[in-house]
């Protein structure tokens, strides 16, 4: 069995230190095979925030896989960086690669950077992927899958009921990539709400989506901090939601999936 820990949106600069410490203690006890952090490590990529985020990431169970989010770009008090080098400070702290890839045992994971410093849309927090990015991800998935094929980005694919914020765009093209590449699992965040489901159920392949809540931010969206623990064993996959309960993280709910010829389906 392979065990993945998926967390998102710690938002150092608006993080609760006690919650962060409790999470690190819990993560050490869980001892996952891989830890994935799907963006928004900071509030505005201030140096103090990046230093706190780096200390946190260095304490995550190894190996870990980290991508940036829209809050890891400087605000408009740093307009030059915002427009011309939005990820300079992130790269200086976490390395130059904004779209890392990793193969470890039965896991293959590809990162996509859905965040932009500036763009034609009015809300620059929205997630956008270019055609070049989608083509590059497809080429990275061209080799045979070792067992569990994962795509990680910051912005979500699933919208909670009555939610007014947009999911990543262009979603149809992204779902086509997932279908063509037989991606098993997408890991993302951004909404600060836990949501687990599938995309592509009307296509030739369905993919599981794990949208993790914020792990330790004070910027809550109607639910406490939490994270997802993912257990994969062949054609079975289980996602366990852990929520923070005042002093510690506890298991809260479970979703099970099974893989068949047309991808993954939830087990009721």
From TrEMBL:
UniProt organism field: Luteolibacter soli
Please tell me whether the keyword Hydrolase is annotated for this protein: yes
Q: Which domain of life is it from?
A: Bacteria
Q: Which family does it belong to?
A: Belongs to the cyclic nucleotide phosphodiesterase class-III family.
Q: Which UniProt keywords apply?
A: Hydrolase, Iron, Metal-binding
The entry's protein name is Metallophosphoesterase
Q: Which residues form the Calcineurin-like phosphoesterase domain?
A: 3-193
């Amino acid at each position: 069995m392979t065990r993945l820990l998926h967390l998102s949106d710690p938002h150092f600069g608006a993080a609760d230190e006690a919650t962060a410490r409790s999470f690190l203690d819990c993560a050490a006890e869980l001892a996952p095979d891989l830890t994935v952090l799907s963006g928004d490590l900071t509030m505005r990529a201030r140096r103090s925030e990046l230093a706190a985020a780096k200390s946190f990431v260095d304490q995550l169970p190894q190996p870990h896989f980290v991508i940036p989010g829209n809050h890891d770009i400087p605000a408009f008090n740093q307009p030059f960086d915002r427009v011309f080098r939005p990820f300079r400070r992130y790269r200086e702290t976490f390395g130059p690669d904004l779209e890392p890839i990793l193969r470890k045992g039965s896991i293959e994971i590809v990162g996509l950077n859905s965040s932009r410093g500036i763009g034609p849309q009015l809300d620059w927090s929205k997630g956008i992927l270019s055609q070049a990015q989608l083509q590059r991800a497809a080429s990275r998935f061209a080799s045979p899958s070792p067992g569990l094929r994962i795509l990680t980005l910051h912005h979500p694919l699933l919208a909670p009921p009555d939610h007014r914020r947009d999911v990543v765009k262009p979603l149809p093209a992204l779902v086509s990539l997932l279908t063509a590449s037989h991606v098993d699992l997408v890991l993302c965040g951004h909404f600060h709400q836990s949501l687990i489901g599938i995309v592509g159920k009307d296509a030739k392949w369905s993919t599981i989506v794990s949208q993790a809540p914020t792990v330790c931010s004070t910027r809550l969206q109607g639910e406490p901090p939490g994270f997802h623990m993912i257990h994969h064993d062949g054609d079975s996959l289980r996602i366990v939601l852990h929520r923070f309960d005042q002093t510690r993280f506890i298991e809260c709910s479970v979703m099970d999936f099974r893989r068949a010829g047309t991808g993954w389906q939830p087990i009721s």
